[in-house]
Amino acid sequence: MFNFDFQNPTKIVFGKDRIKELNKLIKDNARVLITYGGGSVKRFGTFDKVYNAINNGKRVIFEFGGIEPNPKYDTLMKAVDIVKKENIDFLLAVGGGSVMDGTKFINLAANYKGETPENLLYGKFNENDFSKIIPIGTVVTLPATGSEMNSGAVVSHKNGKFPVMSKHSFPKFSILEPELTYTLPKTQVANGIADTFIHTVEQYVTYPVDAKIQDRMAEGILKTLIEIADDCLTKENDYNSRANFMWSATMALNGLIGLGVPQDWATHAMGHELTYLFGIDHGKTLSILQPAIWEVRKDKKRDKLIQYAERVWEIDIENDDEKIDIAINKTREFFEKLGIKTHLSDYGIKEEQIEDIIKSLEAHHINNISETHDLTIDIMREILKKAY
Ligand code: NZQ
Ligand code: ZN
């Protein structure tokens, strides 16, 4: 196991009927900006619940809606103006990964001392570049990204999608009410399960470093997802499957399973290009790429793919090569059963457009990635052809 430090400051408030506790979680006289997406939280009553919970007559409450999936820099900068003008001192994100990520970015951008907040997108900042940091709370409506308990955000701007990592971005608290997920369309449930699955394997299907706890936790998340997926998709308002789904998503990307182990993230780096170029949902981009990446990188990941096959899919046969192939096929079938198509051609992309993806990867200097830093552009081309 590699050396590691671990600190995660986010308080989790999980379970039924927890929104009303917002009143205790935010200071009495705060100037709060509630951020949300394209309107689902208004349509399904979550916004009102949140508003009523915090409206104590002493707080001043503002709202900013319209944060789109794959949140755009220009949209978020409009919220930055409100934060500055109204002296906001608490940010409350109500939504999925896009709203949570967007809100983290609003916070950083509003308090960034450098020339332009665009620098944040390109990693041109350090943790001391902020005049102050506003506390953030979240109310999660879509389990997927783990944003509710991590320090990452992904923002779209001009010619790409950019990860913005900062220790200042951990939420102070996150409310996880599984019942809020009942209104999700099936396709978003599928996206969330796939995203959670792939966050887990990005930190697990690499090479062994004898990190037994992290491995067993990762396997636990994967087996849980396989067990609950069907209930999440087919049983209406099924609390237990949604509760397990929600906690899996948080646990997959709150730092724990990635401690002291190699991490890949090639699927995500390449997936962001597919969202940027073709507008494919994040979870779907990953499901297209993951089986192809494993097919091409079998030798690099051999030991962990065997472990994955044996422990997650319980494949009990002699031949290791076959074991790996069956595990990869089962993974692809799992995504397909979620209702996610796993080939580029399923999304109306033409084979010659693979070169556009390659150009975009090059423009974003994505090269020599993966846990072994040797996944080159040429290998990415091979992966994309396999994924076609
Ligand atoms: O915008 P509204 O109207 O609210 O509708 C949203 C949106 O259209 C809808 N939705 C959310 N909760 C709902 C609901 N509809 C009905 N009922 C509910 N309870 O779902 C749609 C998608 O929402 P979005 O927030 O975009 O999805 P997701 O949570 O998958 O987030 C995706 C974003 O997160 C980034 C992705 O790149 C992408 O930009 N990621 C962030 C990460 C992080 N912070 O660590 C890691 C991830 O790998 C990922 O990259
Ligand atoms: Zn993801």
UniProtKB/TrEMBL annotation:
<dbReference type="Pfam" id="PF25137">
    <property type="entry name" value="ADH_Fe_C"/>
</dbReference>
<feature type="domain" description="Alcohol dehydrogenase iron-type/glycerol dehydrogenase GldA">
    <location>
        <begin position="9"/>
        <end position="178"/>
    </location>
</feature>
<dbReference type="InterPro" id="IPR056798">
    <property type="entry name" value="ADH_Fe_C"/>
</dbReference>
<keyword id="KW-0560">Oxidoreductase</keyword>
<dbReference type="GO" id="GO:0005829">
    <property type="term" value="C:cytosol"/>
</dbReference>
<dbReference type="GO" id="GO:1990002">
    <property type="term" value="F:methylglyoxal reductase (NADPH) (acetol producing) activity"/>
</dbReference>
<dbReference type="InterPro" id="IPR001670">
    <property type="entry name" value="ADH_Fe/GldA"/>
</dbReference>
<dbReference type="Pfam" id="PF00465">
    <property type="entry name" value="Fe-ADH"/>
</dbReference>
<dbReference type="InterPro" id="IPR018211">
    <property type="entry name" value="ADH_Fe_CS"/>
</dbReference>
<dbReference type="GO" id="GO:0046872">
    <property type="term" value="F:metal ion binding"/>
</dbReference>
<protein>
    <submittedName>
        <fullName>NADP-dependent alcohol dehydrogenase</fullName>
    </submittedName>
</protein>
<feature type="domain" description="Fe-containing alcohol dehydrogenase-like C-terminal">
    <location>
        <begin position="192"/>
        <end position="388"/>
    </location>
</feature>
<dbReference type="InterPro" id="IPR044731">
    <property type="entry name" value="BDH-like"/>
</dbReference>
<dbReference type="GO" id="GO:1990362">
    <property type="term" value="F:butanol dehydrogenase (NAD+) activity"/>
</dbReference>
<dbReference type="GO" id="GO:0008106">
    <property type="term" value="F:alcohol dehydrogenase (NADP+) activity"/>
</dbReference>
